[in-house]
Design a protein that fits this description.
The protein contains 28 helices and 15 strands. With 732 residues, it is an alpha+beta fold. The longest helix has 34 residues, at 318-351.
């Protein structure tokens, strides 16, 4: 068999000079370590026949000696591409909790072990139950759509509109009358694999394949493919294998891009270990999942959220607690690295890698470059939100105390609004245990204040001796001295937690934030203030979804904070009646009082001059308040009944004049132009226009419950008639 010489010069900047040196050495009968003699026929053993000359013949032979993943009851499936994520996808925290698939209670309520809970028969029953719930008002289903680099564990922060098994998506047509989504291609996948426990990964990455456990009751995306095996109890060992160095080497040999496609994973060889009763990869994989989830319980946008980090660690002050948390995190990351080394060692043994091959993998000698194999394209940069975050490595560690303080204050605001449960900070025994990795995600994370139904608490759910008063109307105000002043309410939370040390804790928080007092932090509309910190925290995967809305007067001397989940048709009128109008009357009375005093002292003297300044300042403040009232009333008079299913950004859009953020104005203009006629806010504001859209677009008609208006043909009937025609033609 004739061999061909290949020279690998990846590490050389001057490749021309390096190549000349290698050729000269070969002429002298010497061959450097980066010169390989390989028979081209050997490449055919690897799927797609890549020129993977730098690995040994034995490694290439693995693809013929071992079974591919897609065999023996294992499979990989492409997921859903909605073709309009802005319309059909939300962050879980922006939609009504009562509209999210509530499968956690169904699957977990029995408290069975995973082996009993996820038998094939029970999985089928569970999938059928989930499908049924989508016809019973459970519109939003957890949507695994890639995400940042996070092997083993990653929270699923998106939900997709799968009401009536995706009726709106199935009827969303393009200009030629075809369905925009790939949903009709997924009939078998949707019926047999949606809602099933499995594994998933971001299809496009920079740092490498990172596979994580896919809990039950999820729909998975085109950009977040999913894999399945016969028994979910066997999945952890596959997750561990897929995250190992040697598996990723074999995967990378077949393609040069960092896009981990379904077909490539299907063809990659795996050892004969999956069906073994015991697997040495099972324990380290599960240990990693539990450890990584424990690091996620401090993130208030996570389904695992319990408490902010500064309330999960001991210490007298905030800096001491932050330092303790940093130390604990560093120890956890060291343990994660140790476990990963164990996983790599086990995987090397399963594949039978020699010591020389292991060392070559560890040193990077066998690293795949996108230019070395066929199809070496870089990931699509348009999919940035599905790719890795910009942070170095996958580190939870930070030496900056500021993010931890902002997390704490965000939680305090949530406690005041009744979103989070303060009792968990007072009694750690109330914190629930860790779920099974394959359990469906809860509608509400453990740290949320919940009723007995597992949904956000209502006033009647909260006991009289609950340690803090809750703002059930969803309105706080930036107004010193007011009982619903946001700073006052945050201080009340700090006092319950720290008691007589609360003032010192507040002072320390201000020092860390770099502000003179807490109000400065809440009033600052730009970067470094609470509002923009909150916007950043609650924006992921192109969903910009802050749930505490800052309505600010022109000069920032007055403001309201509205809680997104308490919005209703009366909330703006309540804000005017209970907060803004009384404030204007109070400040007008103060202005009158100043005028009376000014008349009494005359027009000369130091006191008179000071009163003139005070009057001018007060007059400007009253004008500022009246301007605020005018703008707020203009929106209130639209009589909007906010529908949270539309998402945060469309609901906040009419308030664009009051919100210190550029995004709402853009979406308000687009609403006016008719870009979002599927939304309920558009129907309320422009009903005639939207009804005309319903006549032409069945998807919009379904969104508004106006299918009787629709004149367009149902795509489902086209599919059925198309199948009938093909069948008839084949029979003739």
């Amino acid at each position: 068999m004739t061999k061909t010489l290949f020279i690998r010069l990846l590490q050389h900047e001057d490749k021309g000079a390096a190549l000349a040196e290698r050729i000269s050495a070969l002429r002298e009968g010497r061959a450097d370590a980066d010169v390989y003699a390989v028979a081209p026929e050997s490449f055919r053993q690897v799927p797609n026949t890549p020129f993977c000359y730098w690995v040994s013949e034995r490694i290439r032979r693995l693809f013929t000696e071992l079974p591919p993943f897609e065999s023996e009851g294992r499979t990989v499936k492409q997921g859903l591409a909605t073709a309009d994520d802005f319309r059909f996808v939300r962050a879980w925290w922006e939609v009504p909790a009562g509209k999210i698939l509530d499968s956690w209670q169904y699957a977990v309520g029995s408290r069975q072990k995973a082996e009993e809970k996820w038998t094939e028969e029970r999985i089928r029953e569970f999938q059928a139950w989930c499908r049924k719930r989508t016809y019973e008002g459970k519109r939003w289903v957890p949507f695994a759509k890639g995400g940042e680099y996070s092997p083993y564990y990653a929270d699923i922060h998106l939900v997709v509109n799968w009401e009536n098994e995706g009726a709106e998506i199935k009827n969303n047509l393009n200009e030629k009358g075809g369905v925009r989504s790939n949903v009709w291609m997924l009939r078998d996948t949707a019926a047999n694999y949606f809602f099933r426990p499995g594994l998933t990964w971001p299809r496009s990455t920079v740092k490498g394949l990172n596979v994580r456990i896919l809990p039950g009751a999820c729909v998975f995306a085109d950009k977040g493919p999913a894999g399945f095996v016969g028994k979910p109890s066997q999945l952890p060992r596959v997750v561990g294998l897929f995250n190992s160095e040697c598996y990723q080497l074999l995967l990378g040999l077949q393609q040069g891009s960092r896009a981990w496609e379904v077909g490539t994973v299907q063809k990659t060889a795996i050892p004969n270990f999956v069906h073994q009763e015991e697997s040495s990869l099972q324990k380290p994989t599960l240990s990693t999942w539990f450890l990584k989830r424990s690091l996620n319980v401090i993130d208030d946008t996570s389904h695992a959220f319990t408490l902010p980090a500064l309330l999960m660690t001991p210490g007298a002050g905030l800096v001491e607690r932050a330092d303790t948390y940093a130390k604990q995190t560093a120890e956890a990351e060291a343990e994660l690295r140790r476990i990963q080394a164990e996983v790599d060692k086990i995987a090397f043994e399963l594949y039978g890698f020699t010591d020389e091959e292991r060392n070559a993998v560890g040193s990077g000698q066998l690293t795949v470059d996108s230019n070395e194999v066929s199809g070496g394209e870089s990931p699509d940069t348009d999919d940035a939100e599905e790719m890795d975050s910009a942070k170095d490595g996958e580190s939870f560690l930070t030496t900056d105390h500021r993010p931890l303080v902002t997390d704490l204050l965000s939680w305090c605001v949530g406690v005041a609004f009744g979103r989070f449960d303060i009792r968990l900070a007072l009694d750690s025994s109330l914190i629930p245990g860790t779920p099974d990795p394959f359990d469906p995600l809860p509608v509400c994370p453990p740290g949320m204040l919940q009723g007995s139904d597992g949904l956000p608490a209502k006033p009647e759910d909260v006991l009289r001796h609950y340690p803090i008063r809750i703002d059930w109307d969803g309105i706080l105000v930036d107004d010193t001295g007011h009982e619903d002043d946001i700073v006052r309410r945050v201080r009340e939370v700090l006092e319950v937690i720290w008691k007589d040390r609360a003032e010192a804790i507040e002072k320390e928080a201000c020092e860390i934030l770099g502000v003179r007092e807490l109000r400065d932090y809440f009033r600052k509309p730009a970067a470094g203030g609470f509002w923009m910190d909150h916007v950043r925290r609650y924006s992921k995967s192109r969903r910009k979804a802050p749930i505490y809305w800052y309505l600010r007067s022109a000069k920032g001397n007055y403001g309201l904070w509205l809680y997104h989940h308490r919005l209703d048709k009366d909330v703006l009128f309540k804000a005017l009646l209970n907060y803004v109008e009384p404030k204007i009357r109070l400040e007008e009375d103060r202005l009158k009082s100043l005028r009376v005093r000014k008349e009494a002292v005359g027009s000369s003297g130091r006191e008179a001059k000071q009163l003139e300044k005070d009057m001018d300042r007060q007059d400007q403040f009253v004008s500022e308040l009246k301007n605020f009232e005018e703008r707020l009333r203009r929106v209130a008079n639209l009589h909007l009944d906010f529908d949270l299913n539309d998402g945060v950004i469309l609901n906040i859009a009419p308030l664009w004049e009051l919100v210190p953020w550029n995004e709402p104005k853009k979406y308000w203009q687009e609403l006016q132009e008719g870009k979002y006629d599927w939304s309920h806010i558009a129907y309320q504001l422009w009903p005639e226009r939207v009804q005309e859209a319903c006549k032409k677009d069945r998807s919009i008609a379904i969104a508004h419950g106006q299918e009787d208006l629709c004149e367009a043909e149902n795509p489902a009937s086209k599919k059925e008639s198309g199948r009938g025609r093909r069948k008839k033609k084949g029979a003739s």
